[in-house]
Amino acid sequence: MTTVAGIDSDHDGIRDDVQRYIELTYATKPALKKYAFRYAANNLRLIEKGAGSLSKESVVGLLRNIDADSECLFTGYPDDFEPLIASLWAQILNTLERSVAMKKALALVRNEALVTSTPTPRLTVVCP
User: Fold this and answer.
1) What is the domain extent for residue 34?
2) Which residues fall within 8 angstroms of residue 87, CB to CB, at 6 or more apart?
3) Distances (CA, A) of 57 to 14, 51, 63, 93, 109
4) What percent of the chain has pLDDT over 70?
5) What is the mean pLDDT of the chain?
6) Which of 36, 93, 99, 110 is the most exposed, fewest CB within 10 Å of its CB?
7) pLDDT, tens only, 34-81
């Protein structure tokens, strides 16, 4: 039986199947691989937390991290961005349970956005 968290044998926050995919797909692009790992790790945390109890503040924090990772990927690799994000999402959300957990986590923020009218300030992203 597959769990939402999946197997992370080296305990680095990235499921083994996602880690293997990134390693093989982006082996010749080490900087892109670094940002792909960060993007995947933050999305996987969101899914794992979405399967359990999760606060709105936790979701917002993870989404800010994901946004920063996306900015780094897009800024550094604009031609690779769309296929990279699409393929990572396919790997990350590869079961119904994982998709449901992500939807549950994102619903917390969507519901919150309906009752608050204060805009979120734009992040200044520094890509190391």
Assistant:
1) 19-115
2) 21, 25
3) 22, 16, 10, 22, 9
4) 80
5) 81
6) 110
7) 989 999 998 898 888 765 666 777 888 888 888 888 888 888 889 988
- Which residue do the tokens 């992203």 mark? 125
Structure tokens at 123: 């992040």
Residue 81 tokens read as: 């961005």
In 3D space, the residue among 78, 5, 65, 6 whose CA is nearest the CA of residue 38 turns out to be: 65
Burial (0-12, 13-18, 19+ Cβ within 10 Å), 126 = exposed
Residue 85 belongs to a domain? yes
Residue with the larger pLDDT of the pair 29 and 5 = 29
Question: b vs e for 95-121, b when ≥16 Cβ sit within 10 Å of the residue's Cβ?
Answer: eebbeebbebbeebeeeeeeeeeeeee
Looking at residue 79, what DSSP letter applies? Answer: H
- Structural domains counted in the chain: 1
Asked whether 47 and 92 are in contact (CB, 8 A), the reply is: yes
